[in-house]
């Protein structure tokens, strides 16, 4: 199937959902991590946290001030760290 066919199918599904012809697809939402609380619990600086996460200090500051929210893989990594703080040490060691 080409990308055009995929897009066309997706758009038709959206129209069908909007018109009530089919049920909406399952949507998965993750709770936005409290980055500042996670970092504070780990007792690490913003620079150390940014280095382990593979991002900039400015990004960490944006997440902590809620100007931006972590998405994608970063959100999953943060959720993993929140559930298992020892995972942070694994990240920091690489």
Number of helical regions = 6
Low-confidence stretches: none
Largest sheet: none
The helical percent reads: 55-70%
Strand segment count: 0
Q: How confident is the prediction overall: mean pLDDT?
A: 87
Shape: elongated
Structural class determined from secondary elements: mainly alpha
Radius of gyration, whole Å:
19 Å
Order of SSEs: HHHHHH
Note the gap between the termini.
39 Å
Sheet-strand content, in percent, reads: under 5%
Question: How would you sum up this structure, described in words?
Answer:
By secondary structure, the protein is an all-alpha fold. Helix content is 63%, strand content 0%. It has helices at 3-18, 35-42, 46-53, 57-64, 72-83, 86-92. The radius of gyration is 19 Å and the shape is elongated. The model has no long low-confidence stretch (mean pLDDT 87).
Give a brief outline of the structure.
With 94 residues, this protein is mainly α. The chain is 63% helix and 0% strand.
Name some characteristics of this structure.
mainly alpha, elongated
List the helices and strands and how they pair.
Blueprint: H1 3-18, H2 35-42, H3 46-53, H4 57-64, H5 72-83, H6 86-92
Helix pairs in contact: 3-4, 3-6
